[in-house]
Write a structure and sequence with these properties.
The protein is α+β, with helices and mostly antiparallel strands and 245 residues long. It is built from 3 helices and 9 strands. Helix 1 packs across helix 2.
Length: 245
């Protein structure tokens, strides 16, 4: 296949395909990015902006401890970016599909923080990010997807946007931006991180009731959109992940 496919196991139907997400563009020439002979991304240029979408980025050794696999996964991401002529600082959106996420989420954060810090991202741009509890076809501890962009300064920009109702994730040890705003020729786009029912200190609010948590989450999303002069009416894509069906 000439484009990457990320396979995640559905928590409610482990052997069934329950959804398909496809990213497509019309106009630009699109080419594949290969790493170790395998297609891991697609690359195209539009209005002098280089864009790359990556998927199914895996650690090298699925038998290694989860934290080691996380380190290898980020190294794989960096290598794939290099193949596309891009850098880690140009990743604007990141997806982490993490098997048994609650068992080692703190370790994952520690590895991500250390890796990003060693590359100077805390002084540049931390991507909007989502971590989803899901297994994958390779049986590894995590699988990574990413979207990266090289935007010339005279064409546009990518910048972190804070959440009006939440504190910075950096304050409780998560190396991500609440949102990243892309200013591109002819449009602005807001990429919002995985968002849940947490307060300014990073702890859950409104108890364990799913409906109340959903209301809080929507309040947070609405405030983020409003802070950039946007609304839900201008939303073009959203994903909802639930722990219990």
């Amino acid at each position: 296949m000439s484009w990457p496919v990320t396979w995640s196991a559905d928590a409610f139907a482990a052997e069934a395909v329950s959804q398909v997400q496809v990213h497509a563009v019309a106009g630009p020439v699109v080419r594949s990015v290969r790493l170790d002979g395998r297609v891991v991304g697609r690359l195209y240029e539009h209005e002098h902006v280089r864009c790359a979408v990556f998927g199914d980025l895996q650690p090298r050794d699925r038998r290694a401890p989860p934290a080691k696999q996380a380190q290898q996964g980020f190294e794989t991401l960096e290598a794939a970016l290099a193949e596309a002529g891009l850098a880690l600082s140009q990743v604007v959106r990141l997806w982490l599909h993490v098997d048994h996420i609650l068992d080692w989420y703190d370790e994952l954060n520690a590895v991500r923080n250390g890796f990003f810090a060693s590359r100077g991202l805390f002084d540049q741009l931390l991507p909007a990010s989502t971590a989803v509890g899901a297994a994958n076809h390779a049986g590894t501890a995590l699988c990574i997807g990413a979207w990266a962009m090289s935007i010339p300064a005279d064409v546009g920009s990518a910048a972190e946007v804070p959440s009006p109702l939440q504190g910075s994730p950096r304050e409780y040890g998560a190396a991500l931006s609440r949102a990243v705003e892309l200013t591109l020729p002819g449009c602005r786009r807001l990429l919002i991180s995985g968002t849940n029912s947490i307060g300014r200190d990073g702890t859950s609010v409104r108890g364990k009731h799913a409906g109340e948590q959903a209301e809080r989450t929507l309040d947070v999303l609405g405030a983020l959109l409003e802070s950039r002069g946007m609304s839900f009416a201008q939303t073009v894509r959203a994903g909802i992940y639930v722990r219990d069906e």
